[in-house]
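User: Quick one: structure for sequence A, then sequence B.

Assistant: Sequence A:
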Amino acid sequence: MFGYIAINKAEMKFKDYDMYQSYYCGLCKCLKEHYGIRGQITLSYDMTFLIVLLTGLYEPETKKELVTCAAHPLQKHTARTNEFTEYAAAVNLILTYYKYKDDWGDEHSRRSYIAARLLNPHMKRIRQKYPDKIAKISASLKKISALEKKNELNIDVMAGLFGNVMAEAFIYKPDEWEASLRKIGFFLGKFIYLMDAYEDVEKDIHSGNYNPFKESFRNDRDFAGHCRQILTLMIAECSKEFEKLPILLHADILRNILYSGVWCRYTQVTARRATPDIPENQP
């Protein structure tokens, strides 16, 4: 997964951070229980946002427990799970599976091919439970792949297709909130696609892989600023739709992510390009 829809820890209250982390740990626990270690390694901040969003909107009964894990074997920590945790875990696996397939198709990565094959048994079970959702998601991803092979440079078309993927992922059930959740997912999906292209543009130029920002990166003197404008439009539309929802539970966590957390990777990538001698993993 991508990990762009994350918190800004420095701007978050301790209690909100602990709450967010408990949903993240709950997702990790659920992935391991349903899909084993292979599922657990697909753990994603993006889907943690989805859990917190749906929990804040529907306020379901949520289970709280103390757990240990491989990452923290000597210290128990809180994990929260509810009906949306299992749903987000399935969506997480779907998106990861198709990303592996895409990496195999684009880069002939044997590692991605093997990873996708190992997830096949789990995907068969998920297809039985969410056949329509998988059909719609895979159809949009196939269109993306086909247009990438044609070197389609219309970023709105390309980002919109991935927006459709995330719009489908954000719909848990048909009800009065479906339209707003679909729009939130759609604009977050566009943001993720464009942010991923922004981060990878140098690598893709070097490798020859598709990236809709290649020409802009080469020719636009204010490439970072213009990308920021486009990304800001996506998050503005997403946030506008979020504010229409009657969410009180975990609202501060969700606003931290939408108004601050989503920009953390952009800031890191932009700073790294401005000072290329700084290692990539340096904050």
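Sequence B:
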Amino acid sequence: MALGGKVSYFSSRIDKIGVTLMAYADAVEMVEKESFEAPHTVHIRQVLKSQRGEALSTAFKQLGQLIDKLDTRNNILIGSLLNMLLLWDFRQVLAILEWKKKYEENILQAFEVIAEMEALASLAILRNNYPRWVEPQILESPQNDHLCAKQLCHPLIAEEVAVANDYDAHDHTLALITGSNMAGKSTFLRTVGINAVLAYAGAVVCAEDFKLPIYSLVTYMRIKDSLNESTSTFKAELDRMRYILDKLTSDPDTFVLIDEMLRGTNSVDKYLGSKAIIKKILALRGKGMVATHDLQLAALEEEYKGLLKNYHFDIQVIEGEMLFDYKLKEGKCTIFNASLLLKGIGIDVQDS
């Protein structure tokens, strides 16, 4: 490419990123001037130096000044005079190229530092905004330790309406959670999952106490079909289940969260398939939680004592009105609400 072409291409690229880079200058300067105590953040601040020991915020500002000079070309009258008399564009582009050679490696590193500082700031803001949340305890042995939570809540549900639950996996590896519609099964699985993600990220969690080993989290929720991929709901579920079983086979430290599997098939296949899948998960020594409407699956607890344990969410029906307490209880569910919900829209369900 001729030098003139390089000038045109490079100057157009600089015009687009100039404003963004100037914004980074202020962010870099804030980190440089901040006083940190934690060794990791002290190290991050020290990284924000050029090889010559110069502050990188100054380097960003120098680039901003060079871009401002190059932008003079956008003024037809002044730009024409400067280029005829001083070859202005060539001079500025050469100056920018020289700046690039001098700071390129450090600037790329600065972007990574700013990204890490933004992530750390997000975690710090979460802790500041929710002082009642606690630091989780990450346990060392996924094989010998287990998940234990006290007063665990969903982080996205308002504190005044959130219902806290306790859960301890000390006497089982797989929890089978039954319950009626809208009783809280799916929300509880999401509560466990999102708090685990927060814990692994280094954030505080929405609980009174939360202990868990380092698991590979895998979920089976909101499985959808796809017309673009010619994938039915049942096919999508099979693909996801295959992935989960393969993951359990290759990684014994996998923790699964499965919400109502095999919804895309008939009730008989659903029950038989779900039963076979749960047995396969247990055979692989899998750990996790399975939420289901199939009360028959609760019978597996007798066959797999010490591995599978029943839990449930139920409802109270008082004068024909359903009341949900959203509390996790041991044992299988005995009260379901589909008939009551149908009756509420004018459909009476009769026993045959």
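The first helix runs from residue 3 to 33. The mean pLDDT is 82.

User: Thanks, that's what I needed.
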